[in-house]
Amino acid sequence: MKQMTDRAATLNDASVLRDGQGLGPMPWVLAILMFITVLAAAAGLAMGSAAMGLSDDLAHRLTVQIVEANPDIRHAQTLAVRQLLAGMPSIKSADVVDEATLDRLVAPWLGKDAAEAGLPYPALIDVTVHDGQAIDLRTLTSDLTAVAPAVHIEPDMHWLGPFTRLLTLMTVLAAAIVILMMVAVAAAVILSARAALNTHRNTIDILHLMGASDTQISQVFQRRIAAEALISGVIGLVGAVFVLVGIEAVILSTSSEFLDGIFLQWWAWIVLAFLPLFATALAQLSARATVMRALRKML
Questions:
Q1: Nearest C-alpha neighbor of 171 from the set 55, 52, 48, 264
Q2: Sign of the C-alpha dihedral, residues 286, 289, 295, 297?
Q3: How far apart are the first and last CA of the chain?
Q4: Cβ contacts of residue 286 below 8 Å, gap of 6+?
Q5: Are 64 and 111 a contacting pair, CB within 8 Å?
Q6: One-character DSSP codes across 62-89
């Protein structure tokens, strides 16, 4: 009996799924799914990292404006406010934004000649708070108003908060896409395994008569599907990496401060590299469950 079982297993390995038609278009489907999965996962990891970094940074940043049309009074109040902020123990730094930077910031709205035209705009002080320190905006405003009646305090989170929430929402959406792609991988494997079983049904019946167990037959399908899934996953990963490298090059060329933080960290690349292995394990489990269920019904 043992010799018949070993022979059945050998025949199984030699014949089942050896014609190249048993899995149909599954390898190409898996490669495409992995390509999309890696891109979605990369987008989610990059935007999630950017959202976390931006939230941490904005939580400790304030912008103080001195809204005064008279340039001499504005300059004096700016110096007084900066000196007062520098003496506060909770303030890490208080830097006055120079005129050249202000001109660059208002240029998209007021034009490049705004400074030459003498248009007044507020003086800005970029304030950074020490980590773990809480700022009472009402008290701070009262203290600064004593030396600069035209002062206005704006937490950076107020005007960049929507952008951070958008990044978080996109991260959740990317995670949902990755989950759906994994479900699609499992579905593709299940359909392909069923098709392969129908194609080789006569061979499987013969193997049963020769003494092969359901587990032995299932392992043949598992090995073949796992190998195809791994190769397809690597192909999809390589294609996605080329796209991601190109996207990063475009982001670098834009020199945009908003896009500078949307990059993949070193650990994110490791996560992406493991996606084909995860998909392969999922494909193997899906194939085993499908084949074993079908083989039990054949008996």
A1: 48
A2: negative
A3: 19
A4: 185, 186, 189, 190, 193
A5: no
A6: EEEEE--SSHHHHHHHHHHHHHHHHT-T
Helix residue ranges, H only, the chain:
2-15, 26-58, 71-86, 99-110, 137-145, 156-199, 201-209, 214-254, 266-298
Chain-centre distance for alpha carbon 195: 35
Residue type, 200: H
Tokens of 111: 């034009």
Is the pTM here over 0.70, yes or no? yes
- The neighbouring-strand residues paired with 153 are 64
Nearest to 189 by CA among 25, 38, 37: 25
Summarised one tens digit per residue, pLDDT across range 187-238 is 999 988 888 887 777 777 777 777 777 788 788 888 888 888 999 999 999 9
Contact between 202 and 299 under an 8 Å Cβ cutoff? The reply is: no
Compute, in degrees rounded to 10, the torsion defined by CA atoms 222, 227, 232, 234: 130
Q: What b/e sequence results for 245-271 when a residue is b if at least 16 CB atoms lie within 10 Å of its CB, and e otherwise?
A: eebeeeeeeeeeeeeebbebeeebeeb
